[in-house]
Design a protein that fits this description.
- With 261 residues, this protein is mainly alpha-helical.
- The chain has one domain.
- Helix content is 75%, strand content 3%.
- It contains 9 helices and 2 strands.
- It has a two-stranded antiparallel sheet.
- It is globular and about 60 Å long.
- The N and C termini lie far apart (50 Å).
- The N terminus is likely disordered.
């Protein structure tokens, strides 16, 4: 972090709360605007790629809403939300912590968190499961296109999680965790021919982890950790690693294979 940013943060936290609220009120719409511009830029680039290489429009990505696609989004959100709850509550059991309601996190904070996670999931889906994956599927087939998409998604998270100075083992760990998610999302797009299903899967996981159980970049949210955290043992770590990289992706892949024959 730059020194100027550190100075701003130190100054920010010494200001009276009324001025902190004013700064947040001023800068929050700017940040929201930049995020929406990012999504619009990705959409424009996606259209350009599709037109240059396939003479097709954005509609081939299955972005036009209908009842079937909304249902796919809803099913994906519920399934992955449940899987994420099992993952985090299971880890809390073995680490000896519990979750309590955060009294400072109300309706509008939750709504803003849901909106943030939806935009984050949508941006990544457009980049990794949008035009590039669609063109790859047409060129080399669904299986290899999904594998390449999953690898790219895993490598991308080395950058977004800033993993390069944390050692080889954590990098491998993050690659397999996020790459497994990338496979699920890509395969969902390939089978449904729509972005709604992978968006639902992606959103369902991160909205539970970030907005409900405070395990993400937005800090304390709806429920916060209470108690002294102990490290997971070796077998417990392996169990939850396999849950996220084998069991959940396997279950979603099995569902998609049988649902979309």
């Amino acid at each position: 972090m730059k020194l100027t940013n550190l100075c701003f943060i130190n100054t920010f936290f010494t200001l009276p709360s009324i001025f902190q609220d004013l700064i947040i009120a001023v800068y929050s719409p700017i940040i929201q605007f930049k995020e929406m511009v990012g999504i619009l830029v990705v959409l424009a680039l996606s259209w350009l790629l599709l037109w240059l290489f396939s003479k097709e429009h954005l509609t081939v990505l299955g972005i036009v809403p209908n009842q079937k696609r909304f249902t796919e989004f809803l099913i994906g959100s519920i399934l992955m939300g449940a899987f994420c709850l099992i993952n985090l509550l299971g880890q809390s059991y073995f680490t000896g912590i519990s979750y309590v309601r955060n009294p400072d996190y109300g309706f509008w904070e939750a709504l803003n968190g849901v909106w943030w996670t939806l935009k984050a999931a949508l941006f990544e889906e457009l980049v990794f499961r949008g035009a590039l994956l669609y063109l790859l599927i047409k060129k080399i087939g669904a299986k290899w296109a999904c594998i390449i998409s999953a690898i790219a998604f895993g490598i991308y998270h080395w950058f977004s999680y800033q993993m390069f100075d944390r050692g080889l083992i954590p990098m491998i760990y993050v690659f397999f965790l996020t790459g497994a998610g990338g496979w699920m999302f890509a395969y969902a797009f390939a089978k449904t021919k729509s972005l709604f299903a992978p968006l639902g899967l992606h959103f369902g996981w991160i909205v539970i982890s970030i907005v409900v159980l405070s395990a993400g970049p937005l800090g304390n949210s709806l429920f916060i950790v209470e108690g002294n955290v102990t490290e997971l043992g070796g077998w417990e770590q392996l169990l939850f690693f396999l849950w996220q990289t084998v069991i959940v992706p396997g279950a979603i892949t099995w569902y998609l294979v049988n649902r979309y024959r």
